[in-house]
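Table S4 entry, ornithine aminotransferase.
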Amino acid sequence: MTSASPETLPTAAGTSRTSEFLRLDDDYSAHNYHPLPVVIAEAEGAWMTDVDGRRYLDFLAGYSALNFGHRHPDLVAAATEQLGRVTLTSRAFHHDQFGPFCRELAELTGTEQVLLMNSGAEAVESAIKIARKWAYQVKGVPADRAEIIVAGSNFHGRTTTIVSFSTDSTARADFGPFTPGFTVTAYGDAAAVEDAITDRTAAVLVEPLQGEAGVVVPPAGYLRRLRELCDDRNVLLIADEIQSGLARTGELLACDHDGVRADLYTLGKALGGGLLPVSAVVGSRAVLGVLRPGEHGSTFGGNPLACAVGRAVVRLLATGEHQRRSRELGAHLHARLGELVGHGVAEVRGRGLWAGVEISPGGPSGRRISERLAENGVLCKETQDTTLRIAPPLTITREELDQGIDAITTALRR
Ligand SMILES: *Cc1c(COP(=O)(O)O)cnc(C)c1O
């Protein structure tokens, strides 16, 4: 079942090359996404060019996978150099990018050990396995009885175990039976977590700032209270920073805004610099140390190419430049978007160069606004039906940012 045939697509489809590719996608790709009708052929920095030569400002940045923009020269150089040396060994052997990347990532994040995987969902799955094993071996929870407390409206990925504790019916419907062992509490409600903790609780797993839910910042004190509860009750705090981390919110980690340290962090998206999938679980030796040989792994996790790019990502983040850009440009973004409240916009949420623009009730859908923006050369995407998610590359200039905000202002007014 397709939601829009190429003939009825509202933009771009008039031209031959675009419609040709849209038709191919429609015929041969599983319809698990509903992309805007734009076919990208090239990209650099904050700009993308489609197959018909139209240029677009990237206001989505691959859901924060492109925090450093498209094809950042340092990252491309690191990948190119590594392509000329060795790209894959499997974990059957050591290689010379692995230990250095693990050490550099641990130092950057103020942690002790690193487990390298590929996708974000794999990092979350890994954190769940580690937390359960920790509960049995260290905390002394009876076998197979460990519980993990999560938040409503969460997004942690798409595997069967992860959708087991999603509250999004579209993500779950017809994919059961589901994995037991998860308790859902309302996001932002620390008292509900307090009530949900039992002697069998292994971990509390939360996004410090919910991305897919609409760029939702939790109430002040929420993360701090979770940290206290976890300390009091001998429970691990797992922060899923796959989208919120690595400079997106103006700090290295979103938890840093609250001065909160998690026991485990899941990282992904920007960790691969927009070049390839790289994810990780980082934390203390005491927790990650529960894993023994053979208990967990991945053929591609921690491969030389991924590590070489990851090391270049760590070098970019270590300067603090992208965090600073996110803070400064983010303040500008939020000031300008704030002026739209009451003019087609009900609310603007977010932190740093990351915003959820809630369209006023009765206004056009987020999809419709995204389509209008695409027609005007700005690419972003709705999350939920009524929220526009804005997350440009952190390398964007102030002029480019203003150009995009101008287009958003126009699209909302029309
Ligand atoms: C994107 C995302 C994931 C899943 O990452 P994939 O690489 O798509 O598997 C998990 N958690 C959060 C918070 C995310 O934003």
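Residues 5 and 256 are 45 Å apart (CA to CA).
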